[in-house]
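Researcher: For the record, we're logging two predictions in this thread. I'll number them. Prediction 1 follows.
Model: Prediction 1, sequence and structure:
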Amino acid sequence: MCTHRPSCPAAESTAAEFPEAHVVTPHVVAAHPEQGWNLLCDGTVVFDDSGELLPDGRVVAPRRTPAGRLAMAA
C-alpha cells in the first residue's frame, strides 16, 4: 500500500511501534479529524485516542497516561 521510497516498515513489524528509531514512518493518506481517525499508507487506522486498528484486524489499545502523571493547573 505504501508508495513512497524508501517504503515504510510493515504495520505488523515491531519497527512500526517505534517510529523514532527509523527515518521512514507511515504517512497519512486519508485524514478524518471530524470522525477522530486517520488512515496511514501501511493500512493502519490510527484513532485520536492513540488506539490503532492494524490491517490484519488486530487492535492496539490506546496508550493512556496515568492520572497521577498529568500536569495540573495551579
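Researcher: Logged. Prediction 2.
Model: Prediction 2, sequence and structure:
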Amino acid sequence: MNKEQSLQRIDVKGGVLSPIELQRIISYAQNLGLETFHFGSRQDIIFPLQDGNGDLIIEKESFDPSFFTSEIQQNISCSYVSIDIFNATVWLRGTTYLYILENFRYKPELKINITDPKQQIVPLFSGDLNFIASSHEDYWYLFLKLPGWEEEYYPVLIYTWDIAKVAEAIENAYKKVGDVNELFLFLNENLDTNNRVIEKPLRVAFNPFPYYEGMNKMGINQYWLGLYWRNNQYDLEFLKTLCDFCVEHRIGKICLTPWKSFIIKAIPKESKLALEKLLGQSGINVRHSSLELNWHLPVNDKKALDLKKSLVMNFDQNDISTYGLTFGVTASKNRNRYFTSIMIEENKISQPIEDFVVRPTYNVLYARNFNPNSRMYKVYAQDIDQMDLPRLLIELTKIYFQNLGTEEDEQVQNFIAKRESIEIEVYQCKDCKTIYDPSVGDVTLEIQAGIDFHDLPKTYSCSLCEATKDNFEKIILEVV
C-alpha cells in the first residue's frame, strides 16, 4: 500500500459542514496526537499518516476505522462554496444546494459534481456524474464520465429534486446497460422523474480564476473570509478557536474548496473586527499573492510543493502575471480528471544506472483555449528538465494573454458532435395532441408506467379532451 492510499479521509458532503461538525473532527484528530490535517481536492478532510512523533495513526488504540470514509466511497463535490460571493446562475440559491445534498441518503461510489457553470472555483467535469445548472430554473445538464464509457451528455435535463435519485439509479444501472441510450430508456421505465428536453447545448464561458482569500464584502452587512495554507497543513488549535468564534457569532457553515482552502460566509458586519483581531493574534496571513493561490497540488506531496515554490518564485522575480490561469502538478496521467489551465506531469524515473543520478523530467500540457472546462489538453512540451520549466511556463502565459478573448466556443461544438437523438414510440391524440408514452403511463388516469398502448382497455380515453382510444395514432418522438 503506497503513501497516498494510506491517507485516512473523511468525506464532507458538498464541502459544507457546521462549526460543531468540524470541531468533532478536530477533537478526534487531536485524540490521535495530530496537530494538523489536510484538505483534499474533492472538498474532503485528510488526516496525515503520522503524528508529530512519527507514530502511525492507524496503530494507535484510539484509531477507529469507522470514523473515516471507506476507500470505495466518494465525496460529493459542489459549488455551494461559491454562492453569494462569486458569479452565479440567477435562479440558484444556497438552499437549493443544501436540499440536493440532503437528498443523498446513500453513499456514492461514483464521483458526483453538482456545479454552477458561472463560477470557476469548483470544477465542472472532474466527476463521473457531473450535474451542471442550466438556464432553466431547477433543471441541470448531466455530463457522464462513467468508467469504461465514452464521455457524453445525458439526453434530457434533470430536475433539481430528482438529482439524488437519478444519481443512485445510474450507479445501480450503468454496468448493466451498454450506452447512454439504454441508460436513458432504463431510467425512464424505472423512475418517476420530471425531465425536460434540452433546447440548447451547454455553453461554458471562460472567466478568470477568482481570488479566494482574505476578508471580503458580501452583500450590505456581511463579509466572507477565505483562508489558505501554503503547505496544506491546517493547524488544529487555530481551527478549533475559529470554530468557537463561528458558534459564538452564529455563523452556521464552513465551506471547503477543491483548492485545499476553506471559506466562511455570512460573517456579520459587527463581528468583522473581532475576527480580524483573532487572525492577527494567531499570526494568520491572509494576503498571499494570486501567483500562489491558483495552484492545485497532490495532498502530502513535498516534492510537488517544492516545485511549485520554485516556479512561483521565478514568476515573481520576472514580474509574470498569471491572472485567470490555474496550474497543477501531478505524477499521474489521468487527464480526464485534470481541472487546471496548465498541467505539469512528472514522468516516472527509469531504472537508475549505477553511479549516475537520474533527474526527473516533466511534460507540460495546457487546456484548449486555457479553459479547464474544455476537457481537452494539448501537449506543449515533453521530457523537460526542471530547469527549463520556468521558461516554458512563461511562454505559455504569453500565449494565453495573446489569445485571451478570441477562443472559439468548443463547448458547443463538442456537445453538438456527441449529441445523439433517441427515438421513442408513443401514441398521440389526433384532436388535442396529448401523448401517451408507455414508459411513463398516464398519471391522470392512474395507469402505471410500462403498460403498452394496445393493452389499455377499450374504454380508455384522452385524459385531456376525452377522445376515444381509436382517435390515437402511433408516432415516433425524437428526444435529443
